[in-house]
Amino acid sequence: MSDGGGGGAWLSFDAIPPDSFAASIGQLCYRDASDGIVQVRMNPTGTMLNLGGSIHGGAVMTFIDMAIFAGAKIIGRTPGRYVTLDCATHFIARTMAGTPLDAFVRMVGQTRGGLVFLSGHCEQDGKTTSSFTGTLKRLKPRG
Known about the structure:
By secondary structure, the chain is mainly beta. 13% of the residues lie in helices and 39% in strands. The protein has one helix spanning 57-75; strands at 11-12, 29-34, 37-42, 82-91, 101-110, 115-124, 127-138. It is globular.
């Protein structure tokens, strides 16, 4: 499921406040890849390196958390405010700076009570670098 075409047009995340933690990941873009899968892309930089010279796992996990939200939004969760309830990441290979990192996200299901279950994997240069699962929970309106 690499960037070899077949996906829709790329859209960008425009509502990330520049002084937020989320902004440390840089500009993200996303598109409907096909068959209920959303592709989210980041461009890892040298500022994200760990002491071993690859992208820090915390940066990858932050990207995955943001990708899960993008996937859920595009795929069709119930409208509202959500928080991450859990997110499990399995690192498979190193992620390097200077090459786009893509997350492919699919919705596994959602409940009427406000839980959204997602899964996916990340690829760099067509090679799987991690897999993940996550659960979002809809917050009740304040009032």
